[in-house]
Amino acid sequence: MTFTQQDARPELESAPGSEWWRTAVIYQIYPRSFADASGDGLGDLPGVTAHLDDLADLGVDAIWLSPFQRSPQKDAGYDVADYRDVDPIFGSLADFDAMLAGAHDRGIRVIVDLVPNHSSDQHVWFQEALKAAPGSPERARYIFRDGRGDNGELPPNNWESVFGGGMWKRVTEADGTPGQWYLHIFDESQPDFDWTNPEVRAEFESILRFWLDRGVDGFRVDVAHGLIKAAGLPDYTPDPEGGSMGGDADEVPYWGQPGVHDVWREWHEVLAAYDGDRALCAEAWLPTVAQTALWVRSDEMHQAFNFHYLETKWDAEALRAVIEESLDEYGAVGAPSTWVLSNHDVVRHASRLALTADNPQGAGIGPKSPGKPDPVKGLHRARAATSLMLALPGSSYLYQGEELGLPEVIDLPDDARQDPTWFRTEGERYGRDGCRVPIPWTADAPAYGFNETGAAWLPQPAEWAELARDVQREDPASTLSLYRSLLAERRARGLGSGSLEWLDGYGDDVVAFRNGSITVVANLGSESVALPAVEILVASGPLEGDALPTDTTVWIAAA
Ligand code: GLC
Q1: Which InterPro entries does this UniProt record tie to the protein (predicted)?
Q2: pLDDT of 160-217, one tens digit each?
Q3: Is the Cβ atom of 345 under 6 angstroms away from ligand 1?
Q4: Does the pLDDT value for residue 222 go beyond 70?
Q5: CB burial string 121-147: b at 16+ within 10 A, e below
Q6: Is residue 191 part of a domain?
Q7: How many other CB atoms sit within 10 Å of the CB of residue 507?
Q8: Backbone phi, then psi, for 247, in 5-degree steps?
Q9: DSSP 405-459
Q10: 403, 307, 412: which is closest to 364 by C-alpha?
Q11: Are residues 217 and 130 in the same domain?
């Protein structure tokens, strides 16, 4: 079955200028862990198609799919060998088209992940580069350099990979001698492209068009802050306390270099030439909100993940500050703020918000981690945090399974772990597998309904039976019911396009604001807070009469 650009987008209100992305709630699907129609233990695109009604029922506006393109899966698909095809473990291009059409039929937009910073080492270009000589056009698509030392035996600089270990790997030249080195910010199976090379730029414009022609509504752009490296590749030693994506550090020679903005301007033009509001969302871990806002100036990307919001501790003053700063800084460039609490790279917020020890981004938690979270407190906080987030003006991102209140899986056996971080740090960092466990659909089914065979690429905890979607669907007090209520009220009241007015009088440990027809009160303190006697629209947990308990958020009808 093939679709043209027009008939793949049948039902959407996609008139230019509607700018759906400004207010959308976008649900992240991590395909390998969402639903597995083939039964091999890895989720797939037919699995997504089979559950589109559940997503419509949840009430999301769009989905973002993590990579499903051809890949050896050394970094769960973020190592792409062919940008124009679906990996057979996820299905086929026809399966993608069917999924896209099914989503559009339900009014759900579809964003796909695009990984431009690096390819897989199995990509045909990299294979050609390995066979070609130093200085050749094939090598110039990647970042090959001669080594330091008398015989080139030392890496060209001291950079350290985000996943641990060095950032360079030496190759053996065609004549069998030790040769040049290539740069890989992530795993050695993920060589970085050279984005100063026009051939690389042209190739990615063509890849954008390939997916736009199929009808996608936009792209989540992986490692958008990494494409350009500082001239001369100067040595740099990261702060050991900083997150692995360098979000806190200033002036990192491989993050946030000014030259990336030209790339986004070129991409903006490519998208603008298509009908119906296609959008680009940047994954850019940068030191400040103000710097991130430069990524979404009116001729660049449309959105950027608000990782500053995600990284904010469960603290009322800090939350008020980051919300205000985000609305100001993104507003100053005419962009919406986004909001996000979980994704496939961070500890799920039902666990993270109750951690009692520092946990740098990318470290993960496992059996030996200090400060493990109390799961009951974590879930309370997560429900309160999401209830606060979904009332904010702008666009919000959800990560599959958070609507079920899933916690991070802490006790995965060592031999089940697959994140390259775990291997490259020799177990020092657990990495991200704990937030990637296949999600539960049906309590009494093999693999909790993830598939029909019971196979699962990461083991699911026994406690997840009671978190399965079918159980929660029937329970008005469940986390799923809370998310459905929040999303329905948000949509009915147009909160995404609203505005925020802070409310005083509830005390320092409370975040309180008005957005249009609702008042939001979130109690982050240790004491209950008195509420005015008004209609409660949604509550993240049980109330104590007229009082709002700790770690609870309510939406009430504004006076
Ligand atoms: C992004 C992805 C992450 C991946 C990395 C390398 O940060 O979200 O999962 O490992 O890029 O592509």
Answers
A1: GH (IPR017853), GH13_cat_dom (IPR006047), O16G_dom_2 (IPR045857)
A2: 999 999 999 999 999 999 999 999 999 999 999 999 999 999 999 999 999 999 999 9
A3: yes
A4: yes
A5: bbbebbeebbebeeeeebbbbbbbbeb
A6: no
A7: 14
A8: -60, -25
A9: TPPP-----GGG---HHHHHTTTSS--SGGG-SPPP--TTSGGGGT-SS---SSP
A10: 412
A11: no
223 and 247 share a domain? yes
| 9, two tokens | 């987008």
pTM: 0.96
- Which numbered atom of ligand 1 lies nearest the CA of 345? 9
Ligand 1 centre and the CA of 78: distance in Å?
Answer: 6
Q: Is the CB of 433 under 6 A from ligand 1?
A: no
- In short, whether 101's Cβ falls inside 6 Å of ligand 1 is no
Residue 492 maps to a domain: no
331 — pLDDT class (breaks 50, 70, 90): very high
Among 183, 206, 227, residue at a domain's last position: 183
List the catalytic residues.
Answer: 222, 283
Check if 188 has its Cβ closer than 6 Å to any atom of ligand 1: no
Range of the domain at 155: 124-183
Q: How many domains does the chain have?
A: 3
Q: Which residue has the tokens 């993960």?
A: 364
Distance CA 308, CA 318 (A): 11
Rg over alpha carbons for the chain, rounded to the nearest Å, is 23
